Every structure is written in structure tokens, then in C-alpha cells.
Queue: 2 jobs
Job 1
Amino acid sequence: MKGVPGMARAVVFFALLASLPSFNLAHWVLNLLVFTLIYAVMSSAWNLVGGFTGYPSLGHAAFFGVGAYAVALWFKHHAITSGYEPFVVLPMIGLFAAVLGIPIAAIAMRTRFDVFAIVTITLLFVAQTLAFNLHGLTGGAQGISITVAPFPPATFERPYYYVLVALLGLAMGITFLTMRSKLGLSLAAVRADEDKARGIGVRVTGVKLLVFAVSVGLTAMVGAVWAYYESFIYPQFAIDPLITIAIVLMTFLGGRGTLWGPVLGAGILEGAQQLFAYWLGGSQVYLIAYAAVFLVIMLLLPRGILPTIQDRIRRRRRRGTVNAVAVPPALPRAEVTVGGGAA
Amino acid sequence: MHSLIQGVILGVLTGGVYALMASGQTLIFGVMKVLNLAQGAMVILSAYLAYQLHSSFGIDPFAAIPITTAGLFLLGVTVEVLFLRPLRREDRAELSLLVTFAIALLLEGVMSLVWKTNYRSIDTSYANGSWTVFGYQITLVRLWAFLMSAGALGLLYLLLNKTRFGRAVRATVQNPESARLLGVESTRVSAFGFGLGAATAAAAGSVYGLLYAFYPGSHYDLISLLLSIIILGGLGSIGGAIIGGLVVATSSAIVASTVSAAWSPMAFFAVLIVVLLVRPRGLFGTAARGAI
């Protein structure tokens, strides 16, 4: 976030990500990476709304499903010419979902915090009902299939992987620019006190709708990549409340409103999730373990990993300077801020 | 016309049960400003408890209500003390959504472990009985369930309006700070309030198995249904929850009987959107404070 070191961090991170597939990793590792990236992009996208504006959308999985079904429908009506064609269509799917998101956000964001959460979670279940009931479009409970991509089996995951890395770059780039711009300040104002923000001339409605549209557009693009990767989609997996909850939890774990938090959270939780699924097999014990981890995170790290660490570093630094310089007038002020940080 | 009126009858009878579930959830919101996403899971849990009591000991689901409400009251108090109380005040509203959802997942996991994931329903001797009045069918189970719900809501009304505890709860809903200043033990009110909300879920859940087949994942359907009801009625308003329950159940039943059962979940969403467009705080919601 602070100029050069932040840039260097990003360059190293993305160079590492881009070079990973050339290490001849096993298929299951690449599969794990693909899913981690899917969640990393979605958490970063959710963070734009949930982290910066403080509106906890629980309906993002509906837009994931919109993307998934969009790509499936596209292939129902167009003959596939090359394996890369769906990736070319991605921006259009993202745009479509973003446009779809605007009226939805316009209605849902009339309400504040709690009610917004309720309206969006209801939206999620409505989308699922629609996916089950609109047989003509979605195939209903029988699901809908997409032609399997003609990529060589040995490197099957790679195209998806690179596209997802690009999407992650896009999502993080947007986050970075948002944090550095007036838009970010407007969002912070909305988060702190929406009425006052409106009073001092922040275009509250405009920025909320904009950021929601961008966020769900990114989410839909991820949904499209996921559907193409899975090549078969069912309503209960394409529009799954657990997806919503996973991305919210990942963002909370890493740190809301930070650039790297959602990515960190996705890395940790998706890894843990796959390990649990592998160790515990059956869905029941797995669900219990997942819920238990969830509760522990919420109770121990309510603010997320990165904000907690940053706080601690800042406090240590401050204590260091205070001890070294020991200028009497600096002491009370330092103590006040330290106290504020600790509360 | 016949199917429309039949839909209304069915809807009102079912709506009573929904009103009972939702009144507990809106009570929890009123007292703690916490949206309990585990309310549906608690309903399904007590449906399983009633199922177990019926199949193992032959206890009628209606007679099982005291047992299930007591059990769920304790569970509710435990959840509040262990998981909700430690949350810091400033981000309690945000985190409690996630915490209660995690509890819903936990309950779902435990239920699928204990009772497996296939559909269950409770079969009693009177399960298929019905009266025919002027050509309209009134299912007996639904009628009893409706009367039980009305009775339970009446008890809740008495508890909130005629007892010391009820007065403390109402004071907390109206103004938590003043209530604390006047000596209301807010931690105890929160714990008992959450327990009470869970207990209403238990009363409704005990008869849920008589009305519908259920499995551990059924609570997902209830989440959006109950949330729509309490938004419709206005968050924190028990009277609103009752009206909301009746409106939602009746509109779904009308759609189910005149259009198709598959589309009935859409009916309450349509109602919800209209209400939010016209009156974002719900039918009986007040601007800032809850009202009981």
C-alpha cells in the first residue's frame, strides 16, 4: 500500500503465481490452486462492497450462479469453435451481471445494515428457486452440461489457472485503485456514517451502486470460469449459500477493507477446507469441523489477521520510538493512541 | 374461486406456525439487535427431537412441546453466553450474522450425523384426518398446529406484558441504555431473550414434522422465509411478525393452489420487494427502536 514496497510485493506475488504451473505440480495441487484462486478473486470482489462500504452482501453467490448459467447458455446456442472462446466471452458476462446488479442494488441498498443482509440472502434463495424452476433455461434439478474443453489432459488446468490469476490481478488492481482514490474515501465515509456522508456532498447512492456492480461483475466472471472448469452445473452447487458464507468468512479472516486480507483468508481457508474434506470425508463431520473453525475465528480474530498484525507492529514501533527518544511531551500522546488502538 | 379460498384457509392455518417461529426471531432482534440465522436450524432440530420422542417413547408431538421448548431454551442461553456475549459491541451486528450462521451449520452437521440426511416426517393416528366445511377442506393437524401457535403466542404476550422479566425485556427493546441505568440486568435479559426466541422455534418445530417432511438441510428454506416475515412486519415487532407470517403464508398458499407449488417461494419475495419499495422499515417497524 505504500508505493514501492507494495508494488514489489505485488510483482513478486504474481510472478510466483504465474510460474507455479511450470513446476510440474500434481493435478490435485493445481486443482486446489484453481479453487483457491476462485475464492481469492471472489473474496477480493466481496471486499469492495462488504469491506469498504460495510454493506454485508450475503447474495453474491447468486451472481456466481448468473455467471455459471450465462456461460452454459452461451454454449447451448453457439457452437464452440475453440477451447478459449469462453474466456473471450468473460468480459461480456461480467458486464451483463454488473448491469443486472444495478437495479438489485438500487432496491436492496435502500435498506441499511441488517435488512440489507436479509434482502441479499433472500435474493440468493430466490435465484436458487429460479434455477430449479426455469427448466427451459437451466435444466432444473437435472442440471446443464457444457462441452468439455479440448485442452490436453496433462495441462488441463493451466488455461483456467492463468485466467483466474488474471482475474485476481484485475480484482486486486481495482481494490488498490479504489483505496488510493476519492472513491475509496467516499466508501469509507459511507461506512462510517452514511447520512453525514450524504450531508457533506458524497454521492452516496452513486458510489454504492458502482461498487456493487463492479463486485458482482467480477463474481459472475469467476462463476463462468468455474462452470466451464466443472463442465456440469446443478442449481444447488452453482447458487450455494455456502459459497457466500465462505467468501465472507475469508474476507473477515484476512481482514476487511485491506488489499491482501481476502487473498490471505482464501489461501488459508480453502486449504483447510480441502484438508478437512480429505481427512474427514463424509459431509456431516466436515460440516461440523468447518462450523467449529468458523466460530473459533470469529471469537479469536474478530478483526481479521492483517489488521491485528498491523496494529501490533504499529504499537511496537511506537513504543520503540517513545523509549528511544523519551521526549516527555510525546509520552501522553503516544499513550492515548496506544490506548485507542487497544480498545 | 374455490381453490383461492382453499389456499387462504391453508395459508392462515400454516401462517400461525410461521408467526410463532418468526416472533421468536424478531424478539431476539429486538432485545439484542442480533439477526439469528440459526432460527430455522433450531426449528428443524426440535422437529427431529419431536420425531425421536414420538418414535422412541410414543410421545405425541404436541405433548412433546414442553420438553423441546425447555431443551431449546437451554441451548439458546448456552449459545448466547458462549458465542454472542464475547463479541465486541461495535461490530456485534456484523459478526453475529456470521456467528449465528455458523451455529446453523453446526446444528445441520450434528443433525445429519445423528439422523442421517433422508427425509423424515412424523406420522400420527390423526395425521390424515380432516373436516369438510362448506366444501372446503380443513386438515386437522394444521388446525391443531394453528391453535397451539395462537396459544403459545398468547403465553408469550402474557410473559412480556405481565411479568417483571417481560417488563425488563420491553425496556431493553425500547432503550437499552436507560434500561441498564434503571437496574435492568442486560446480560441476563439477553441470555433469557435468546433462550426465549429459541423456545418459540422449538414449539413451532415440534409440530413442523406433522405438517412437512424435513431433512437437516430444510433450515435453508426457513432462513429466507422467516427473514422475509420479520422484515415485512418490521424488525423487532412481534405483532408485525404475526401479520407478516399470515401474509407470507397466505400469499404462498394462494400461489401454490392457483399457479404451481414450485413457484410459491417467489410469492413472498414479491411481497417483500413491494414492501421494501414502499416502506423500507417494514409494516410496523419504527425508525430507530424496536417496538413490542
Note: The mean pLDDT of chain B is 83.
Job 2
Amino acid sequence: MSTDTQTGAEDVADRGIVERVRSSQFLAEMLSNRIALMGMVIIVGMVVIAVYARLTLDLGTLVDSRLGGTIPDRAAPGWAGGESAWNIYLFGTDAAARDIYQRTLYGAWIALKYGTITVGASTVLGVALGTIAAYYGDVTDNVIMRTMDVLLAFPSLLLALALVAIFGAGLWKVTIALILVYTPRFARVVRGAALKVLEDEYIEASQALGATDSRVLARHVVPNSLAPITVQSTLNFGLAIIDIAALSFLGFGAGPGTPSWGLMLSNGVENGLLTGKWWMSVFPGLFLAITVLGFNLMGDGMRDALDPRMRETVD
Amino acid sequence: MVSNRFLIKRLLLLVPVLLGVATFVFIILHLAPGDPARVILGQRASQARVLELREELGLDDPLWVQYLRFLLDAAQFDFGQSYTVARGQAVRSVLATRLPVTIELALYGQFIGLLLGIPLGIISAVKQDSVVDHLGRIGALSGISIPIYWSGPMLILLFSTFLGIFPASGRIGSTIFLPDHWSLFGMELPLTGMVTVDTLLLGDIGAFISASRHLFLPAATIGIYSLALISRMMRSSMLEVVRQDYMRTARAKGQGARITILKHGLRNALIPVVTVVGIQFGTLLGGAVLTETVFGIGGIGTTLVEAINATDYTLVQGTVLMFALLFTLVNLAVDMTYSYLDPRIQQ
């Protein structure tokens, strides 16, 4: 009887929707891999640019003002109708007559360096706190997670700003502030994933065999929670790069003259926006957005690919 | 419906979080470098005057006395006086004038996001893996990858510098001055501080148009980001719902595809979207800081940046607390909506 109803229901059901969803599962997985791949290509490209800039460009000449030299300030890129003599300058020059092209390339190094440190450190801290909270439970769990709750009660950029008010300005201080801001997010995801893993029987088995707490955590809990951790790290990488640049944009991050994308953008907005000198703000922002897109594509593709397990472990 | 017990339980759970937030903010103030009395009086003030002010401000009391006093004051929204940015003015009144500006901006931005994001997400899900879907997904992913402090300037460049359609900064035309109250049946009532609302209350259509034109670019800046986030969530949530048995049952009973999606699908698919809208409100507040900076709007975000730059710690404290309180309350509202949409959550 019930089978009949079900078959009947399926017959009447909108075949279009139902079937497309099913046959698309295979397709969706392929697509998701392709998306992840696209993201990976962008990220590798940016890493190459960053390393190239770090190895070949001299930071000093990028930071110091070139005013009074042979190159005019605020010159449009040669290809966009700027003075023909400055054709070599693909991206034009800024208010201090510095080459925006070289500065933008170097910006990739700064963004990826501080982004890696922020995400790396908050992942490690988050994994440690999350697994410890899940494993020991009770008071330990409560103390750790309620502290995380308090930190999560602040909008992230505002918490970072509040911490910058104590630490002071500078790229390193901003990075430390952001590590504190990002750690609770990892701790929460990892705790959820770890709780799931801890239910498995092999955990009990390994405890019965006399494994120490740290061995159980390091050999079983952490490796089996890696999927959600990796996705979380990748997606937060993009956010971290945006936040670091945001704090530089607001004037609390990179020091004057540093070729950081956020600071270059704020210079471009201040000196070229209303006068139509678009190249000053277009290029650093474009590189920033493409980099972040790379991480979002990769994180998204990975999450889709891991979907069935993710649904169970995250939250 | 949301039961009272559930609401009370959620409200009680707020207390420890808010207490933690207040404690954290208190610690910030005390870890911050510099002597508040010295900051207020400036470098040239005499040591005797500084000591006198420390006494007045109660800075020499034991830490726990200061802490309790801070908590009691904060509970009454008394955050003390601004040190430098609005010297001598109560932090509370600074926030009261600046907060509506930010809320207005955030609401319009969120409105644009919801208005476009929900239909876009539904179309993307229903037409899964079609060209529309692919374009929508890539567009949405790009939308969340573009930082607000870049999309804002790009909108200014295009619509203000080059096309001259919308103004690049400010909240209303520089020649328009609004009175500080409006009258209804002869009663003088205070204005809201939200310029699009106030101009309507005053019945000044010209001023309203000016205000709307000024608000358009900043709201669109926030809206693009919010739209991307909402349509992404709406899509994935709708895809999940479409596969549910009750959708098939509704169709089996002879209900049309459109009605099924809008009546059964939308309500269930909205649940995760509500969460995103809530969580995103925090990002939106952070985004407001950046948007206000880009567009030169004097909201609570620019106030915070000014306060940090001027080491105005009471103002930093008040602003951060206010932001956290707003964020927490919005999260509570999200939980409530959530349980209204899915009554199972209350158990």
C-alpha cells in the first residue's frame, strides 16, 4: 500500500525537478572539483607572483616617495592614454610617483604572508582548544566555549579594532588581533567535529589499550576532523586577507608607504577617486578581490565535494 | 508560535554572554596604554591637576570597585564622558546621534540584499546547473570576494566621478538644513536621526530625494555583499528542500510547481537564510565602519575609528559595547524567527 502511494507520488511529482537533482549529483561533483581546481590555479598564480615580487623587487624603492624624480606622480598607465613616455608603467603611478604595478605585485607577498600567519596560528589554536573542550567536556568545555562565545559576541572587524586600540597600529599587531578574532570560529567547528569523532568505537578501543589522552587526540581525533578544519581554513583565508587589508585601509595596519593592498587602496581613494584617477584604486583592489576569490572558490569546491560528511560534522 | 518559556530561557542565556562582553571591554580599557586623566587634560597639564582628575574619575579606587561601578553604569547605558572626540559630551548622547545613521545604512543595504538575493537564489536552485545558475553562482562568489572598501570606491568612480548620477559623499545636499524636530497636530516631536525618515516626517520631498540619492551608493555597496551572501544561502537551502518528501507529496496532491515552491519550499528554505541574515548583520556592522569611511558618513563606525585614533577610550568602550549588544540582540531575534519558522527547534 505504502509502496503504491510512493510510486504514484513519484509519477505525479514534477519529474523535471526531481530527476534533474538526481542526475546532477554526479555532474555537481565534477563541477565542484572544477571549481576547486579553478581556485587552486588562482592561488598558485598569486603565490608565484608573491614570491617573484619578494625575490626581485627591492622593498625600499617601493616604499620611498619618488616625488621630484623624472617620473611624474599620478600618471595614467601608458596604454590608457597616459604620457607615452611612461608606457612601461602598466598600472600608472601613485601620489608619491611610485610604480603601482610593482607595488601591487609586492602586495601579494604581504597579503599572503600575513594571511598565512593569521590563519595558520588561529587554526592551530582553534584545533587545540576545540579538541580539548570536546575531549575533556564538563568544566573544561564550559570554560573554553563560554570564553569563545564572548569573543564571538563581537562583530569580527569591530573586535579586531577594539584589540588594535590596546595593541596599537602595525601589521604584526593587526595580525595578532585577528588571530584572537579567528580562533573562536575554528574552536567551535573543531569541537563539533571532534565530538562526532569521539563517539566512534575505535576511540574507546584505543583508550582501553592504554593510549594516553594526548595520543588519542593527536592520532585519532585531530586527523579524523581534518575535513571540516581544512574547509574552514580555506574559507577563512579569504576573510583574513580582506580583514588585514581592511585594517590597513582604515589606517591601523601597514605603516606609511608599505605596498599593502589595503593601504594602496586608501591612498587611491584619498588622492584619485574624485579626480578620476582610477588606476590608483582599481589595480590593488582587483588583485585583492581575485586572491580572495581564489580561496573562496577552492573552499567552496572542497565543501561541495565533501558535502555528505560535512553536513554531519559541521555545526 | 514562540512560547514565553523559550523566550525567557533565551533571554536568561544572554546575561552571562553580556556580562562577559562587558568584562572584556572593561579589561580593554584598563590594558590600553596611557593614563585617561592625562589623555583628557593633554600633555601640558600639571601633575597636580592630573592627580585631581584621577581622583574625580575614581581611577585610584581598587580595581574591583571600578569594575562594579562600570557594570552598574553600563547597565544603565552610562558609558561616561568622551575624552577627546566630543570632549565633555556624554558617550551615550554621541552614540544616540550616530547610531541611527548606521542603522539606516545597514537596513537599506540589507533590504537591497534580501530583495534581490532571495529571488536570485530560488531561480538558481530551481534551474540548477543551467547557465543562469552558473552565472548566478559565480556572480555570488565574486560578490563575497570583493571587499566593501573596493566595491564602494568603484561605485563612486563609475556613478559619481564619471557619470555624475549620484553624489559621492555626505548624507544630504549641502544646502539643505533640517530642523531638529517635527510637529504633529501642534506637538513638537524629536526626529529619528535617520535622514530618509526625517525628511518624510517633515514632508519635505525635495530633501527626501536628496537624502535617497546620497544613500544610494553606500547602501548599494553593502547591498551587493549582502545580496551575494543571501542568494548563495538561499540556493543551497532551496536545493535541499526541493528533495524533501513533503515537496513530492504536495506535487502529488496536484499542486502546481510554482505554488509548491513558494508555499512549502520557501518557508522551509528560509530557515538557514534567516541565520545567515543574522550572522551577517555583524559583518554588515563591520562593513558599515568601512562604508562610512569610504563615503564620509558620520555614523557609529567612523566614530569608532576617530575614537581609536584620538585614544578616546570611553568612547571606544561605549561604541564596542553598543555594537556587541546590537549584534547579540539581533542574534536573539534570529533565534526567535528561527523557532517560529521551525517549531521543532523549541524542543
Note: Chain A touches chain B through 63 residues (CB under 8 Å).
